[in-house]
Amino acid sequence: MERRAKFYDPGGKLSYKADNCSSVKSAADNDDIELTTLARDAYPGKKLGKTELMGIKSIGYWNIKRMQNWGLEWHTNEGIEICFLESGDLTFFFENDQYNLAPNHLTITRPWISHKLGNPNVELSKLHWIILDVGVRHPHQEWVWPDWVILNPKDLEKLTLYFRQNEQPVWKATPDIRDCFVRIGKVIKEGGEKDYESKLRILINSLLIALLEHFQEGKISLSEELIESRRTVKLFLNSLEDHLYEPWTLPNMAAWCRLGTTRFTKYCVEISNCTPMEYINKIRLRKAAVMLLVQPAISATDIAYQCGFSSPQYFTTVFKRHFRETPQEFRKVKG
Question: Which of 96, 160, 253, 260 gives a 20 to 30 Å CA spacing to 218?
Fold first, then answer.
């Protein structure tokens, strides 16, 4: 299972593709779980209107009281995701770390961070969450909060700073944070045909204030390195192995990172000692070499295309230049 955001380029325009929680939707459709959510786009739940709670991608909770045969695999989201475990327990993976969540644990993930729930299946649990899109997909971008977030500019600036310059994934929630999530869930569940937006706006703002107070009291460490453009490039380079089949060029790699080609190239060389195209060819060649040895039934031509090379001829040329053997010779000698 891939562990990074998916890249695709319909109509020549690079886009971001986040998780659609299909396993959660399937479980809810089968009445295996109670799913009480408001959502937009592909996220499951009662659909929000076009102007309702702008920026909210998903908000609500699941309540699982019977054993499940699914887990939320590695995924990313379109906004900052804040989850609160009210009861039960859950196994939470954040990048390379595993956490065993207990009641009153809080998790915070940013759009560029891969995470998953379940080991391999989710446990009996009541989990609340909010996914709020603040207009960013990369660490170096400036956050733009919805206009219904009413914290004063100074407090909002502090809150943004804490979110951007600290990536501690698991916290212990305060009673105020717990109360906000529980009340949000109650409003959504009892909403029906009633107008719930005003209540939810107030509760979400209260949640943000409670989070700000929690951050301030915790005296958390901040790092400007977490919001540098260089980190955006590093995250992108780390994700490339899962997306070698994409028709990457220098301009569209830079565009994905929301950087100019000169700046993108500068950071790529600093990080990898290679130009962007040298780096991706190195990754493609490494994958191709492994496939040649461990998948003898696949032809060198098919391997070339699967690894993102534009033609078998070009693949043979760069492979021989790097390994001093053709793909066929490499497979015969080392296979």
Answer: 96
